[in-house]
Amino acid sequence: MKLSLPLKLATMTTVVATAIAPFQAATATEFDEFAVDQSKFIAVAVPFNFRQYKLAIIEQVPGQQACWQESGNSPTTVDLLLLNFDHSNICRPAVDTNGYSLRHNGKDDKVEYTLNLVNQNGQLQLIADHQDPAQQDLVIGRTNGIVEAPMKIELDPAWKFTKRLYNGSAVQHIYMSDNPNPQVLKNVATLPTTNDPANINPSQPVTTQPQPLPTDQPAVATQSTPAQTPTATIGGLINNVLTPLSQAVYDTYNSLFTAPSTPQAPPAER
After folding, report:
1. 46, 88, 78, 81: which is closest to 67 by C-alpha?
2. Number of folded domains that form the chain
């Protein structure tokens, strides 16, 4: 029996739609979030080049060596202790949107908003710029001053740190969220995957790890004896040219954003 042309087209459309539907269902990823101990996280404006800063968020693994130390106020400066030791499995630095993102009104807003550090009125503001100029930008936090040193970004009251949840398991991805009451979980399993949703494989085994839960207690690992507050001595550089000393300081901070190179084996002896 031969089909008429309209019937053939209708049949082909049904077949194509049936083939696409499972693919769409497989690729759609819905994330949730859960509450964490705010004292185990810090947002830092890190000097990256002269008078330029990048955002880093650092998570402190509970009970381990301190990853940072705070001192002073307006602004609060941050001693990045994790740069001085092997911080694997001790500190979890997130230095780009693979490791952190915005969660606004209960959904991920990694695409609609771009996070930027903006120098305004003598301080840095962490601002989420909407891609639509007609939409209002969001102020996430501020440094309450500015110096040529890593500075703590104080999140505004409406915002807090949470972590990503996927199918009931934690993903090592940090949110800055405006959810006033994120769910509280204990001993949540952690997926051993990268932060990219496309690489999440729910069939992989998961391990149960204690997550930093909300607490009103002050941080122990991060609030040790205050170090001397760095001063803005770099501001006196002549003609905005970095001295070798200050360049070395920036190189140290830059290492936070640079993946370590694989050491090469020494040449074989002849």
Report:
1. 81
2. 1
Cα-Cα-Cα-Cα dihedral sign, residues 186, 187, 190, 195: positive
Which pairing describes strands 169-177 and 100-104: parallel, antiparallel, or unpaired? Answer: parallel
Dig out the tokens for 3 from the structure: 């089909």
Tell me, yes or no, whether 156 lies in a domain: yes
Q: Residues 5-43: pLDDT tens digits? A: 444 444 444 434 444 444 333 334 689 999 999 999 999
3 in any annotated domain: no
Query: Which residue range(s) make up the domain with 210?
Result: 32-253
Pairwise CA distance, residues 263 & 51, whole Å: 32
15 in a structural domain: no
- Rounded to 5 degrees, φ, ψ at 222 are -105, -10
- The span from the CA of 102 to the CA of 107, in Å, is 9
- d(CA 141, CA 180) in angstroms, rounded, equals 16
- 7 lies in a domain? no
- Structure confidence at residue 171 as a pLDDT band (50, 70, 90): very high
* pTM, full prediction: 0.70
Interval 123-170: pLDDT, tens = 999 999 999 989 999 999 999 999 999 999 999 999 999 999 999 899
